[in-house]
Amino acid sequence: MSPLWLLILILVLAIAGFAIGRTRAMASVDDHRKLHSRPNYYGTNVAMLAFAPAALLLAVWVVAQPIVINASVSHLIPETSYEDAGALNLIMSDVKRVAEGLDVAVAQGALSAEEARSIRTEFTDVRARLGEVGVALGANVDRDVLRAAQAYRARAATGTWFMTAAVLIVALAGFFFAIREARGDFRARNRVENGILTLLITAASIAILTTLGIVLSLLFNTIEFFRLYPALDFFTRLEWAPSFSGRGGASALGILPLLWGTFYISIVALLVATPIGLFAAIYLSEYASKRVRAFAKPLLEVLAGIPTIVYGLFALLTVGPLLVSVFGNGGLLGVDWMGGGRAVMTAGITMGVMLIPFVSSLSDDIINAVPQAMRDGSYGLGATQSETVRQVVLPAALPGIVGAVLLAASRAIGETMIVVLGAGAAARMSLNPFEAMTTVTAKIVSQLTGDSDFASPEALVAFALGITLFVVTLGLNVLALYIVRKYREQYE
Amino acid sequence: MKDNMEGRKLVDQMDVKFQTRDVQVYYGDTHAIKDVNVDILDKTVTAFIGPSGCGKSTFLRSLNRMNDTIPIARVEGKILLDGEDIYDPKVDPVQLRAKVGMVFQKPNPFPKSIYDNIAYGPRIHGLARNKAELDDIVEHSLRRGALWDEVKDRLQEPGTGLSGGQQQRLCIARAVATEPEVLLMDEPCSALDPIATAQVEELIDELKQNFSVVIVTHSMQQAARVSQKTAFFHLGNLVEYGDTDQIFTNPVDPRTESYITGRIG
Ligand SMILES: Nc1ncnc2c1ncn2[C@@H]1O[C@H](COP(=O)(O)OP(=O)(O)O)[C@@H](O)[C@H]1O
Ligand SMILES: [Mg+2]
């Protein structure tokens, strides 16, 4: 039975269980006020026990079965026919494709089940037979591959059979166990509450485990990279020059030029976003009338909803040319600082614009959290509004604002599209902000796009870059959240 | 006829600080203060008492135009400080508040050092010509706030780190530092424990030698202890105003009596 049908079946069982459990519990007492829990809880308890363990088993099985079978079938491929793990993977995907092809052929009646189990490459042109039913294979089917595919099918069929049996047994066991429990004095409500709690905990763990999984996958690939390329070189070399023709030693993969570009652009962005965002926040929270605020705040926040690729286009088509017309050759200032539109300034300014609503919205919340009593105290001493803002409100909000700026910084560091389009691709360590530079994120993109061989250091370096970036932004976020939280506590 | 009456009342009496005539305060459509006429004396503690929501705070805040910071609040009638209308367009509310200081219900020290909390007002108003003078003002104010001995060794520590009672005395010292002529206090002890309350009351008693003090309080005992004059408010009206002794022992209005004996409130 296919997993979907199984799922439907246990769902039906659960619904039936709900009705039966409810009825049985009601029948077990003469007055249903004597029930420990309301009748629905007894029904839910049965449904829960019938469904949850079985569904869980089904999910685990569906994930685990292919992995297990894959591992056992791959032993059937002679070791002489492949060189490394990558090649074995390719062969195994052929095996799966042939196995699926045989399934399709059987389903369409082109092969009998017996034939599918026993055909041999020596007697049958499997590629042609499968081609007839619409499964195109790239090459003639190898003898071992066909054998493996047949074994794969056989084991998959057995596995599915066992799965069906096991899931049904578990579902029925839960069902009957719960039905037997559905009596007036059973504490169904507490059991159901526990079930709900488990559900919530599971949801929370999934979020955490996913993060952990991401970190681990980054970490393993990074370790793999450091096996091929010395870590010391990666962290200290001042040159970034990956070569895709030669392998290994020919490339210079130093992260410093990329980090330099990242920080340079981020600092320009923060220099733009912090004052403008902060002043906007002060205006909105301290001076603006209710009507202006009601209309300006959402408008500012719309800026935050613009996809970053659009900002990238803005950098490429508007900001870059504008800057060139001022700082470039023959520009308004008569200086020749800027060669092309792509530059640290282009990306930095655009990114700054992107961050304005972020800074202003967070700062606005923080300024609003400064108690009115603080302002009253200042007004009560004869201070003007601007004195109050400068000397009382801002100092009180400062830690929170610092936190907001740090959060903005970690966004700037992780930003990709704007730098890909606005900053250029040259890894360079220069002080001139009108020169093109590139960032960690932009290089991760370029190392993994196109035909990349995932076993080469030139591709694996992307993971090392990624984890470095992750550590930096994580550190910033933790620091920022710590500061913001400290600040909140102050006024609670 | 109204002019007539004003003419009579406006005669400069040396010891009258505030004179209010037919004061109305509205919050939007809510009529929170109705026809209040009262003379508040100099170098005297005046207590405002009355049940919650009767408008004590509202009236107090109209005496230094703190109500200006509430957009929907509107004040009508005349409020004269030393004979001058404080709602006259010529009057800058910011300067008025330097003369009529305010202490709030909850201590609200600024997130600055103890020293900077006290120096805040003097700095804004340029009361000190140099650091030494400012130091003097800070010390003097803290002494008047009965806080000097407790904090003199830690003036650079944050004011928010003090205990509740100390914070409130810091706020009083802060208000005193700008050398106001009147000090308005809105339930200054309601967030304090009995010991801190006693300290603040003692302080109020000393302050009256130099200032006119107006204090809103919920505690009848407190009003009786610290004030010489008492005003009883009820539903936005000033019901009775007189010597504290008389109000507490021999009230004229039946509502005052009910409140004092605990039957309304
Ligand atoms: N900021 C405000 N906005 C609207 N109404 C207010 C505001 N402050 C006070 N009021 C109203 O004015 C009346 C008097 O309040 P208040 O002066 O605070 O009373 P009290 O201090 O005597 O308890 C109350 O009915 C209250 O609801
Ligand atoms: Mg009040």
From TrEMBL, chain A:
Which family does the record claim for this protein? Belongs to the binding-protein-dependent transport system permease family. CysTW subfamily.
The protein's topology relative to the membrane is: Multi-pass membrane protein
Q: Does the keyword Ribosomal protein apply?
A: no
What is this protein's record name? Phosphate transport system permease protein
Chain ranges of the ABC transmembrane type-1 domain: 259-480
UniProt keyword list = Cell inner membrane, Cell membrane, Membrane, Phosphate transport, Transmembrane, Transmembrane helix, Transport
Which species does the entry assign this protein to?
Sinisalibacter aestuarii
User: NCBIfam families per the record?
Assistant: phosphate_pstC
Q: Which gene encodes it?
A: pstC
TrEMBL record, chain B:
- Report any Pfam family annotated for this entry: ABC_tran
Q: Which domain of life is it from?
A: Bacteria
What one GO molecular function would you report for this record?
ATP binding
Alphabetized, the UniProt keywords read: ATP-binding, Nucleotide-binding, Phosphate transport, Transport
Q: Which residues form the ABC transporter domain?
A: 18-260
Instruction: Return the protein name.
Output: Phosphate import ATP-binding protein PstB
